[in-house]
Amino acid sequence: MKIAVMGAGAVGCYYGALLAAGGHALTLIGRVQHVQAMQRDGLRLSTADGTEFVVPVQASTETAAVQGAELVLVCVKSTDTDAAAAAMAPYLAPDAVLLSLQNGVDNAERLQTALGRPVLPAVVYVATEMAGPGHVKHHGRGELVIGPSADSERIAELLRAAGVPVEVSDHAMAALWTKLILNCAYNAFSALTGLPYGQLVQVTGLLPALREVVDECLRVAHAAGVTTLEDEVVWQAVLRIAQTMPGQRSSTAQDLSRNKPTEIDHLNGFVVRTGERLGVPTPANRVLWVAVKGRETA
User: Fold this and answer.
1) How far apart are CA 250 and CA 145, in angstroms?
2) What would the pLDDT profile of 60-74 be if each residue is shown by its tens digit?
3) Measuring CA to CA, which of 21, 64, 131, 156 is 20 to 30 A from 229?
4) What is the pTM of this model?
5) Cβ of 186: how many Cβ atoms within 10 Å?
C-alpha cells in the first residue's frame, strides 16, 4: 500500500518504520533536518529490545507528497491540526483513508470537519522520541485502539501484519479520554521537573497530586457524557504508566527542552476549558496548564 505520514515526528516515524519494513511504499512529510537525513540515510529505528534497523523511505517537506496515498497517518501536533488539514485538502485522493494518531480527544473530529470526509480516531500507546535527525528511538509499548468504520478492520490487519498490536473498538472515545487523562497526569509534571515517569512517581507528594489531576479529568469526562470510564480502572492505568514506561520523558518535556511549542492547550488546557463550559472546577489542571504556558514563554 502507498502510505503517507503527515508529521514525521517520533510517533509518525515509529509506525512509519514498521510499515516500511513490512514492504509498504512510505512517504514521510516533516521538518527539513529529518527529511534530509532520511533522504540521505533512510529512517533509523532503535527499538526498546535493543535491536536497530534502517529502512529506505521517501521523505519530503512538502504537503503535496500526500498525493496518491491510500492511507494517511496524521501525526502532527494538536496545535497544527487545522493548518495540516488545509494544506492536505487539495492533494488527498478521493478514496484515501485518514487515521489520526494524535494526542487529545477532538483531533479526528476537527480534521473531519475541515476536510469534509471521514477520519478515523486512533488512541496511541507508545513511548518514543527522536534521538537525532531521521533516527527514532522506541522506549516501550506500541499498541493502537481504532474507532469503528467500514475501513477499520482492513487498516487494522495491515498494521498488525507490520507488527503493531491493534484493537478496533466501539469504545474508542472512552479510550481517547483515558489517553488524554494519562497525558494530563504525566505530561506537565514530567515537563516541569524534567523527570521520566519512573522517577517522577517517587517524588514526595506526587501521587496525591496526580490523583487530584486525574479525578478532575474524570469529573469533566463524565459531565461531557463519557459514561463508560470507570474511575478506578483509569487510576490503575495511570499508575501502570510509570511501570511500563519508566524511562520516558513526556512529549511536553521534550518540546520544552527543544524550545518548541507544546500541546498543553489541548491537554490540561482542554480539560480546563471543557470544565468551564460544563461547570466543573479544575484547579489542579489549571495550575499545570498555566505553569507550562509560563515555561513556554520563558
Assistant:
1) 20
2) 999 999 999 999 999
3) 156
4) 0.89
5) 27
